[in-house]
Design brief:
Layout (H helix, E strand, L loop, with lengths): L3 H7 L2 H8 L2 E11 L4 E4 L5 E8 L2 E4 L5 E4 L4 E4 L5 E4 L7 E2 L6 E4 L2 E6 L8 E10 L6 H5 L4 E2 L9 H15 L4 H24 L6 H6 L3 H10 L7 H8 L3 H12 L3 H18 L5 H7 L5 H12 L3 H10 L1
Parallel strand pairs: 1-10, 2-8
Antiparallel strand pairs: 1-11, 2-7, 3-6, 3-11, 4-5, 4-7, 6-12, 9-10
Helix pairs in contact: 2-7, 4-5, 8-9, 10-12, 11-12
Length: 319
């Protein structure tokens, strides 16, 4: 029977990381738009997802650049950066009129503006998605502000089929279409991220390079698999099968920070998830991470995250 370290070494760390990545839908909606319109989506904590059917529209990316979206385009804004969708550039944007939407069921709505049954209607299926990773997770920090499915089609053969299925559901307007679209959107977003990780994010240095390294990848996978464990440099060097100094030098050169700092960041990012997403008490988070007191945990948390744990928890509650 394999022990814990053998199990980690026998698997592909990159695959393990992707297997652990999950998106949970927060809210979805279908919009049927005609005439002149422009909606600005301010920055938010959750990811944005937009799928386009019908006549298409224009997107102003977080960097301010405009680009045309045509039927079958899907875009993911993984960190919820501010952006705008419009019938054309130059139309004065306004906030999306969420209060004017018709509720279909819990967390799902429908909205129509203009002559929604006329020709030239743009159909948008939009969603907010929550990652199970903290926003400061290395994978999240490396993602671009905007990802487009069409740019990843060449390397991901499943994407065109998912896009075609979404176009079909939008066009048919059948009973239950919104629910099916929501599930397809979840899968599409995951496919976009996987394709980006495997083909677009580069592998010369940094976190992805370390994850793809057969030795460092094992170490990273172990840290993320057990964030509650207070990993020492000696523990990690033993897992890699090298000397303490040799491991520390290679880790720092590839990842860009020391092993101790990386372990501390992973632990505090996990703690922030517990506090914000799971509403865990600060004392319980401190105990799970092995701190002797809530005060010592709070100091470590603030040093890494930049804010006290109580503030992070309160901000999540307000959101």
């Amino acid at each position: 029977m394999l022990d814990r370290s053998s199990k980690i070494a026998a698997s592909d760390p990159l695959t393990d990381m992707l297997r652990g990545l999950r998106l949970d839908g927060v809210e979805y909606g279908r919009c049927r738009l005609s005439g002149e319109w422009s909606f600005h989506y301010p920055a938010q904590e959750h990811a944005h997802f937009h799928f386009v059917a019908g006549s298409g529209c224009w997107l102003q990316a977080p960097d301010g650049e405009w680009s045309a979206l045509t039927a079958g385009d899907a875009v993911l804004v993984p960190r919820g950066a501010a952006h705008t969708l419009a019938s054309r550039p130059g139309v004065e944007p306004r906030a999306f009129p969420r209060r004017e939407c018709m509720a279909i069921c819990e967390s799902m709505f429908d909205y129509a503006e203009g002559e929604a049954e006329s020709e030239g209607v743009c159909v948008l299926f939009c969603g907010s998605m929550r990652f199970n990773l903290d926003a400061l997770h290395p994978l999240m920090k490396m993602m671009p502000d905007l990802m487009r499915a069409r740019e990843l089609m060449v390397s991901e053969p499943a994407i065109p089929h998912l896009l075609a299925a979404m176009v079909s559901e939008c066009a048919l307007n059948r009973v239950g279409a919104s629910g099916i679209l929501a599930r397809l959107a979840d899968v599409m977003a995951a496919q976009i991220i996987r394709s980006w990780v495997e083909h677009e994010c580069g592998d010369s240095k940094g976190w992805i390079a370390a994850l793809r390294d057969p030795h460092l990848g094992t170490v990273l996978a172990a840290i993320h698999a057990e964030p509650e464990r207070d990993w020492s440099v000696s523990d990690l060097a033993a897992l890699m099968g090298t000397s303490r100094s040799g491991f520390a030098a290679k880790f720092t050169a590839t990842v860009g920070i020391t092993p101790a700092r990386y372990v501390a960041e992973v632990r505090m990012h996990q703690a922030r998830q517990w506090l914000a997403r799971d509403r865990m008490r600060i004392a319980e988070a401190a105990q799970r991470l092995g701190y002797d007191s809530e005060a010592s945990f709070s100091r470590a948390f603030k040093r890494i995250i930049g804010a006290a744990p109580g503030r992070s928890r309160a901000a999540a509650a307000r959101a």
